[in-house]
Amino acid sequence: MIPSPMAMLGQVHDATDSVSAALVNEVEEVIDQCVESGIPRSIRSGSFADIGPRRYMEDEHIRIDNLSSHLGSVFKFPNPSAFYGVFDGHGGPDAAGYMRKHALRFIFEDVDFPQTSEVDDVFLEGVENSLRKSFLLADLALADDCSVNSSSGTTALTALIFGRLLMVANAGDCRAVLCRKGEAIDMSEDHRPTHPSERRRVEELGGFIDDGYLNGVLSVSRALGDWDMKHPKGSSPPLIAEPEFQQMVLTEDDEFLIIGCDGIWDVITSQQAVSLVRRGLQRHDDPEQCAKDLVTEAIRRNTFDNLTVIVICFSAPENREQPSPRQRRFKCCSLSPEALYRLRSLLDQNANR
């Protein structure tokens, strides 16, 4: 069994007096390299949902901070691993509720989702292909399930974290926003019929935009379900379930991710949301309270929709009390095989003196 970095460092400090300061410094530098690699030491999140001014709640969401533990030993993923999803229903709650119940099955069981402990180009391509298939399979399943009304649909946004990799898949107008040193970075594009690229695609497939609505009916140009607009299956309707992807390699500058339904983004900009959450984390370090504060602010600004938001934290806020340099070295993530090899070599050299 490989000892932990703390235990190995302890062996160095507890070794014979012949251990030089240079040796200890070299070990600490190795551990510092691990800390600086950008891998989140832990992932934690909070969520909040509110019906808003609507008569019915049609939003659903999924929040899993430890995906490997949730799915069990059958699945092998890079660590840490996490999964989040928001589903903004329309035409009734059927489609969004169906996705909350079955999303994990579609994504991880019904497609050949790649499994490995390392993130590389092959893994990235496999994850994207699997997510695309799962969105399309879920769309078809909504057509075949008699418990789901054919006029019910849902937008869908999912966020996966594997080690340093963040991958967002989106179909609809939910939004994911990354905070990097206080700056908002959009990790998804709102699929509105009025967006130039979406308008071109819709019109090329025989659809039209009327007062901002797809075929005069729907305010989004991508969604799962809505089979009264897509029928018959096998055709190429202007409303599609095909997701778009964005990915990011997380660094120490990346503080948190916000994902939410359009009830938030209709009245709050990406930067305003990031600034509000960042101030909250600096005050109380509670992502769930930050999610609630975002919803409260959207209601105050007279949003007209249901509201759902998830705040996912990667690192501590900048102005929280920082540990001393030596303490900070000890708060490290798992070492890479190369770093472990160097530590073992240093310990072996010391033992042979």
From TrEMBL:
Task: Please state the Enzyme Commission number of this protein.
Answer: 3.1.3.16
* Matches recorded under Pfam families: PP2C
Domain PPM-type phosphatase, first and last residues per copy: 44-314
* InterPro entries per record: PP2C (IPR015655), PP2C_BS (IPR000222), PPM-type-like_dom_sf (IPR036457), PPM-type_phosphatase-like_dom (IPR001932)
Keywords, alphabetical: Hydrolase, Magnesium, Manganese, Metal-binding, Protein phosphatase
Question: What family does the Swiss-Prot or TrEMBL record give for this protein?
Answer: Belongs to the PP2C family.
Q: What is this protein called?
A: protein-serine/threonine phosphatase
Q: Which organism is it from?
A: Hibiscus sabdariffa
